[in-house]
């Protein structure tokens, strides 16, 4: 039960861990497959969140899960944690088919999850959080002393004996809260610990401590599923990598240290199928400058961004999650206030606020369709006219007949399926929901369309249609500013491409002058590339 | 490592896209939906979605059941058509004041908020319009004072909530306490008698056999229905309550609209204050006690979603009438108010349970539909 003395991983762990971190489950053999997922499918109304996921996790390994936002990582975690039940596919847990009806069942089986937004009760103490739901009890009375002792023991083994078990969680810094989350996992004698972006809230030196803890856990034969966007972390801590995209496993069990960065990123972002992009106009048909952005800055999000979009031109912004691209788009749209810089439409400086931007002719399809763009329970036509219903109104009275007719026309142009504008938007598929959001801005007056990840969660057929729609808009003289994680999409659709990294525009060129690898190198350069064999 | 999905062929080139010229492509769209092209024809009186209408049918069923209970317990009374007609009017009159308040409350709740201060606003407006000074301006001055006080207090709520970013529950709870305090201070805790015969006649008189209070309720409900279902204000209310972020990104001024919703609720309270003052021919700081709870309860059993974005005026009206009918039923049977309140509590729970069940079965049905019809 003691730590193997000669394990290099634990040797690096200084002298803090004088005792084994946890009682390793006696029946766990290192290297044995503890978890195997086959063809896992989970659908929600309107979206296939998981669409055939394969995953194999061995005891004692750190298995990294890589994927863009919306690739299905969160859903996958929730299936493993018993929050969601899969529609189909097999979950094999320690050699036997398993299904976790609820989070308690998953925990009891030995799967502990540390969520990104830590699920701690802020106004309970450290010990109460660690043992939340399985407190030591005597006839209904909580045995506070024993709980505190055990918590202190776990904390000191985590290298944080200085955290008092009686302290309120609210008063702890982010790193401390994470330690408490981990203590909770250990209090359950977990065999598999899932960590969802654990480093996102940590400072650099705290990440080192986190890694030390993870190494000690794996040395005990505990398996860890580690989710992070930071490739350099995956190289440092990970053993194997599985890549998800659009709810599917695009690569499984790649060696974490030796797989070229470019391979990982292209499997994360790249096309899984050849999309057919509409042809660009042969002549330079773009008109005068429509949008001019100068020196736009928001601390911590993006800095000194200048760009312009001409009428009839599609400008694409390529960049990874966290490169500041979505924030930039929202700031141009007036939904966030810039700290410095100006946004001009048709040469006139925009006043702050979304209302002014819309009046000046801007429209936006935001990144999160459901939470930012749609009234899910309302009929399609009301969603299509959400920004324009006032224009059809007379004396404040809405003209529902006209709205439905206009929405029906949009539905026809965009080939919405089913084409019944009275249906609640909730019942549409992801692609059709996106058409509703884009269609909203086709109703007259929109001169500049801002599209944030327009094809996320959109199936293949609908994608091609959306591309046609976007190109068609440009052909009518609408300027389009497009943000996408998918480099081929930006290169295939846009006339001109800006590459963003860490809040700055690092390259601007005509789409024809760039290829996917060049852009990927630019996007991944800097901190993400450090120590990574390219 | 990846999948073997075949390369999709793009739809034929059609770049001359949207706005002006809808391209005709019947071959593809015909398959899409058998209801295509349903846009255009629309009765002005058409309700909004069968969902709410079905729910209201349920409420009418409850109402019918209550009437049956009445008829069974007091067959002699219900046998007399004259008495029945007068009883219906009595119920409507009983429902009128709370009904007006509930219309405002329904707007606030659909818009994603809550207004706990309605009872206190009614009291403050009632007291304000019956001070000696206000009464010296005559009935017109009194009505103006009540409406103005209602709107102003509502605006204060609205400003605190939308620009001061207070939680609606807290802001209106504070207003509940403060407005009653102000009302008590203005009236010096005395009952202020209204000497305006015009005001007092509102509750006393009938036109074509129907009390004026019932007309006022009818007018407010009708206006509320039209505003919610047929105006941009109503559409914004649903958008702001259903998904504030989506409303904001669509260019709707969410804060201003939220503020206006509370002003509207205040206006309804002002109207209710005149009605209540007229009924009692006086006003005092303790009047309209707990109206906020009656109004919220009526809106909820009427199917208004407490989280916002969904609700109907007709449902709220039915909710108010159901409560008034229960009160009436207990009164004619000579039962205590205590028993009455217990039954009301039970009805609230039962109504919400039934609605949850309905809602779940509806969404399940739609989800099943989606699989068969969506792309």
* Helix percentage range of chain B: over 70%
- Strand/helix succession of chain B: HHHHHHHHEHEEHHHHEHHH
Oligomer: heterodimer
The radius of gyration computed from the alpha-carbon positions of chain A, rounded to a whole number of angstroms, is 26 Å
What would the average pLDDT of chain A be, to the nearest integer? 82
Strand content of chain A: 15-25%
Spans of chain A of at least 5 consecutive residues whose pLDDT stays below 50 are 1-29, 526-534
The rough form of chain B would be described as globular
Q: Which CATH top level class of chain B fits?
A: Mainly Alpha
Low-confidence stretches of chain B: 1-50, 370-375
Query: End-to-end span of chain A in angstroms?
Result: 40 Å
Overall tally of structural domains of chain B: 1
Looking at CATH, the homologous superfamily of the largest domain in chain A is P-loop containing nucleotide triphosphate hydrolases
What proportion of the residues of chain B form beta strands (DSSP E)? under 5%
CATH class label of the largest domain in chain A: Alpha Beta
Arithmetic mean of pLDDT of chain B: 83
> Helix coverage percent of residues of chain A?
25-40%
Number of contiguous helices of chain B: 16
Give the radius of gyration of chain B: 25 Å
Main β-sheet, spatial strand arrangement of chain B: 1-4
Distance, first to last CA of chain B:
26 Å
Report on this model:
Chain B: Keywords: Cell membrane, Membrane, Transmembrane, Transmembrane helix. Chain A is 31% helix and 24% strand. Chain A is built from 19 helices and 22 strands. Chain A has a 6-stranded mixed sheet with strand order 6-9-10-3-11-12, sandwiched between helices. Chain B has a single domain, classed as ABC transporter involved in vitamin B12 uptake, BtuC (Orthogonal Bundle), CATH 1.10.3470. In chain B, 44% of the residues are buried. Chain B has helices at 26-32, 50-73, 75-78, 81-110, 118-129, 132-135, 138-162, 168-187, 197-204, 212-230, 232-242, 244-249, 254-280, 291-301, 313-332, 337-373; strands at 192-193, 206-207, 210-211, 282-283. In chain B, helix 10 packs across helix 11 (232-242). Chain B is globular, with a radius of gyration of 25 Å. At the A-B interface, strand 12, helix 11, helix 15, helix 16 and helix 17 of A face helix 1, helix 11, helix 12 and helix 16 of B.
């Amino acid at each position: 039960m003691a730590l193997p003395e000669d394990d290099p991983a634990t040797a690096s762990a200084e002298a803090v861990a004088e005792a084994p971190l946890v009682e390793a489950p006696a029946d766990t053999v290192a290297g044995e497959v503890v978890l195997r997922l086959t063809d896992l499918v989970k659908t929600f109304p309107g979206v296939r969140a998981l669409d055939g996921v394969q995953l194999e996790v061995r005891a004692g390994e750190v298995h990294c899960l890589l994927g863009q936002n919306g690739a299905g990582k969160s859903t996958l975690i929730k299936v493993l944690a018993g929050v969601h039940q899969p529609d189909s596919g097999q979950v094999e847990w320690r050699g036997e088919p398993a299904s976790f009806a609820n989070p308690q069942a998953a925990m009891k089986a030995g799967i502990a999850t540390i969520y990104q937004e830590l699920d701690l009760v802020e106004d309970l103490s450290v010990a109460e959080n660690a043992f939340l739901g399985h407190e030591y009890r005597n006839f209904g009375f909580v045995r506070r002393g024993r709980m505190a002792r055990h918590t202190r023991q776990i904390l000191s083994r985590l290298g944080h004996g200085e955290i008092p078990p009686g302290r309120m969680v609210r008063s702890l810094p982010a790193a401390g809260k994470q330690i408490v989350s981990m203590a909770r996992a250990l209090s359950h004698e977990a065999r598999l610990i899932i960590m969802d972006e654990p480093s996102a809230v940590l400072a650099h030196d705290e990440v080192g401590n986190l890694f030390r803890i993870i190494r000690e856990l794996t040395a005990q034969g505990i398996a860890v599923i580690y989710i992070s966007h930071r490739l350099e972390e995956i190289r440092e801590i990970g053993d194997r990598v599985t890549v998800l995209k659009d709810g599917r496993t695009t690569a499984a069990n790649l060696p974490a240290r030796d797989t070229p960065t470019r391979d990982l990123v292209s499997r994360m972002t790249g096309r899984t199928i050849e999309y057919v992009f509409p042809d660009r106009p042969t002549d330079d048909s773009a008109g005068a400058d429509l949008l001019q952005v100068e020196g736009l800055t928001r601390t911590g999000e993006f800095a000194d961004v200048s760009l312009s979009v001409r009428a009839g031109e599609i400008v694409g912004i390529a960049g990874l999650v966290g490169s500041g691209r979505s924030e930039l788009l929202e700031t141009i749209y007036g939904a966030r206030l810039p700290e410095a810089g100006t946004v001009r439409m048709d040469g006139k400086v925009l006043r702050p606020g979304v209302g002014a931007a819309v009046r000046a002719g801007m429209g936006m399809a935001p990144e999160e369709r459901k939470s930012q763009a749609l009234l899910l329970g309302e009929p399609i036509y009301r969603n299509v006219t959400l920004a324009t219903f006032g224009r059809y109104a007379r004396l404040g009275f809405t003209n529902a007949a006209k709205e439905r007719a206009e929405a029906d026309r949009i539905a026809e142009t965009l080939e919405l399926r089913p084409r019944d504008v009275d249906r609640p938007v909730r019942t549409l598929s992801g692609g059709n929901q996106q058409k509703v959001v884009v269609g909203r801005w086709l109703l007259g007056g929109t001169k500049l369309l801002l599209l944030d990840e327009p094809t996320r969660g959109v199936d293949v057929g609908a994608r091609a249609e959306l591309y046609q729609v976007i190109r068609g808009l440009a052909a009518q003289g609408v300027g389009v500013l497009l943000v996408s994680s998918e480099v081929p999409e930006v290169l295939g659709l846009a006339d001109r491409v800006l590459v963003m990294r860490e809040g700055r525009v690092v390259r601007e060129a005509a789409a024809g002058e760039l290829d996917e690898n060049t852009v990927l190198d630019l996007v991944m350069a800097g901190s993400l590339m450090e120590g990574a064999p390219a | 490592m990846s999948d073997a999905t075949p390369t999709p062929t793009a739809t034929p080139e059609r770049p001359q896209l949207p706005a002006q010229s809808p391209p005709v492509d019947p071959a593809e769209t015909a398959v899409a939906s058998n209801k295509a092209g349903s846009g255009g024809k629309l009765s002005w009186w058409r309700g909004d979605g069968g969902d709410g209408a079905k729910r209201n049918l349920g409420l009418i069923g409850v109402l019918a059941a209550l009437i049956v209970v009445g008829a069974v317990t007091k067959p002699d009374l219900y046998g007399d058509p004259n008495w029945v007609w007068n009883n219906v009017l009595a119920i409507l009159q009983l429902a009128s004041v709370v009904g007006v308040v509930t219309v405002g409350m329904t707007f606030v709740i659909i818009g994603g908020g809550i207004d706990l201060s309605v009872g206190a606003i009614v009291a403050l407006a009632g007291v304000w319009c019956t001070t000696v000074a206000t009464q010296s301006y005559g009935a017109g001055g009194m009505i103006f004072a009540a409406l103005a006080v209602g709107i102003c207090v509502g605006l204060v709520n609205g400003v605190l909530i939308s620009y001061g970013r207070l939680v609606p529950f807290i802001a209106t709870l504070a207003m509940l306490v403060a407005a009653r305090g102000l009302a008590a201070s203005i009236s010096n805790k005395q009952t202020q008698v209204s000497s305006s015969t015009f005001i007092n006649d509102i509750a006393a008189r009938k036109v074509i056999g129907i009390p004026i209070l019932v007309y006022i309720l009818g007018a407010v409900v009708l206006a509320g229905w039209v505003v919610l279902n047929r105006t941009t204000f109503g559409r914004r209310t649903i958008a702001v309550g259903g998904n504030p972020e989506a409303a904001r990104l669509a260019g709707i001024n969410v804060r201003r609209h939220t503020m206006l919703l509370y002003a509207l609720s205040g206006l309804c309270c002002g109207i209710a204050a005149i009605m209540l003052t007229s009924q009692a021919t006086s006003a005092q700081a303790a009047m309209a006690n707990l109206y906020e709870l009656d109004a919220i309860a009526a809106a909820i059993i009427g199917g208004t979603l407490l989280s916002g974005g969904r609700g109907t005026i007709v449902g709220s009206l039915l909710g108010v009438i159901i409560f008034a009918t229960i009160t009436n039923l207990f009164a004619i049977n000579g039962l205590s108010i205590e028993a009455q309140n217990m039954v009301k509590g039970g009805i609230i729970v039962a109504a919400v349970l039934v609605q949850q069940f309905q809602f779940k079965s509806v969404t399940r049905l739609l989800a099943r539909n989606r699989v068969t019809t969506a792309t």
